[in-house]
Amino acid sequence: MGMPCVIYGENHGYLAHTLMGEAGAQWIIREANERQRASYVECLLSKFFCRATLSYAKFLSEQWDEAYRTGQYRNWDFGAASQEVATIAAFGLFPRNGTILDAGCGSGSDAVFLATLGFRVKALDASSVALDLVKGKAAKAGVRVEAIHADATKMPIDDASIDFALDRGLLHNLNDNDGVAYGRELARVLKQGAGLLLRGARISYNGNFNPITVERLRATFTESQFSIGPLIPITMVSGADKDPTLDGVIVRIQRR
Ligand SMILES: C[S@@+](CC[C@H](N)C(=O)[O-])C[C@H]1O[C@@H](n2cnc3c(N)ncnc32)[C@H](O)[C@@H]1O
User: Fold this and answer.
1) Is residue 248, in this structure, part of any structural domain at all?
2) Distance 102 CA to ligand 1 centre (A)
3) What pLDDT digit, counting tens, does each position of 153-210 carry?
4) Distance of CA 159 from the midpoint of ligand 1 (Å)
5) Quick check: is 70 in a domain?
6) pTM, to two decimals
7) Ligand 1: which atom is nearest the Cα of residue 82?
8) If you take atom 1 of ligand 1, which residue's CA is the nearest one?
9) pLDDT by residue (tens digit) across 112-163?
10) Which CATH number do you get for residue 105?
11) Is residue 101 assigned to a domain?
């Protein structure tokens, strides 16, 4: 047995998935509800002992589905387009007639807002419950958003078909390996010169978040394929009643 590893129920998967790499560790799962606990255990079994039937993809989407079903998603979602996206739109800096990908779109506030401005929008998320929220918002706004239920490390999107991408809170929830796979997928789907507006936590909170740092960005977005702009600290806002702010960072990544 290795060192005991504690998984707290509040984390959204990246931590659990990372720690699962520590074969032989002793697992202590705290504060998770029964359903999350069962997911963790089944996932561990499937990873190391090939006994459980729950695949990682299913584990991933069930975790997030739960957050969208129970309303826990208000811990990061405040129900309106983000100020960063609204500002870029106000200055006309999104590519005209472009296709925009919102990776890890959640309930789709940014995605639907951009669709109302006439952009073609692909909203991708691992949670089908989140995508139902996206579809509801789009229908209410009378716009079309293409909802894609997929893992961002394997996007069902054509090569070089995206003019601009958004990520608010996806990369900071991926472990290092999945982050690298995600970066590879972005390199494939982004057109030459396309930008990625990335926002995420700059520090870890009680083990939640795999923070966005210069080192992490260099590992995720290879020098030969991407340029990485300066990391600018921002305060990210959520819809949480208690403590609705997060020490975040915003950065412009560009496909070479
Ligand atoms: C913190 S939330 C942010 C949602 C949205 N961007 C926002 O700002 O409200 C992270 C989102 O990423 C999604 N997600 C997490 N891992 C994913 C993966 N591997 N592939 C696709 N989506 C994923 C979750 O379902 C969740 O909706």
Assistant:
1) yes
2) 10
3) 999 999 999 999 999 999 999 999 999 999 999 999 999 999 999 999 999 887 789 9
4) 22
5) no
6) 0.83
7) 8
8) 169
9) 999 999 999 999 999 999 999 999 999 999 999 999 999 999 999 999 999 9
10) 3.40.50.150
11) yes
Domain limits for position 16: 4-54
**Are 85 and 10 members of one domain?**
no
Residue nearest to atom 2 of ligand 1 (CA): 169
User: Is residue 10 domain-shared with residue 119, that is, in the same domain?
Assistant: no
Number of domains in the chain: 2
Q: What is the CA radius of gyration of the chain?
A: 18
Query: Would you say residue 240 lies in a domain?
Result: yes
Q: Of 112, 170, 172, which is best to mutate to test ligand 1, by the most ligand atoms within 8 angstroms of its C-beta?
A: 170
131/166 same-domain check: yes
Residues 136 and 35 in one domain: no
What is the whole-number distance in angstroms between the Cα of residue 105 and the centre of ligand 1? 6
| Atom number, ligand 1, closest to the C-alpha of residue 153 | 19
Same domain for 154 and 34? no
Residues 50, 157, single domain; the answer is no
**Residue 10 C-alpha from the chain's centroid:** 16
